[in-house]
Amino acid sequence: MLGKADASAGDFYLEGIGYREQALQQPKTSFFQSEDPNGVLYASFNGGTNIFIRSPELNENPGANVVYFTATQFNNMEIPGPPLDEDDNFNSNPMLGFITYRLPSPATLLGVPYENFDLYNQLDFYISVKAPDIFGEEQHLKCGT
Asked: Are 77 and 55 a contacting pair, CB within 8 Å?
């Protein structure tokens, strides 16, 4: 699964996404050497890859930030991801500009059996976030790169 953010629109934006190592924030592979929001080029088809999403525009309540996936292989269908789980909420700090998120598998995201992806070696998704602003109006945060 490839997860990059898509082109910016409007005043609300994401700075980007990157890998997030959950276990004591200790780098274990080259993917976790940096927490720069440069994108997530490799993630498991089984899900479970930990990422962070950085933006100064996130809602202060981590759970109010809904992660959306735009599936390029499926006519750019925009799909809401599962809500942040308890660990994601605990490890997120929107006041400092980031939330953490455990990526779902494509089968979970699309609600179909794993066998439906047997013909794919790669899937591409763009990630964005929808969250209420301070006035309660939904803002759609996208990345400019």
From this structure: no
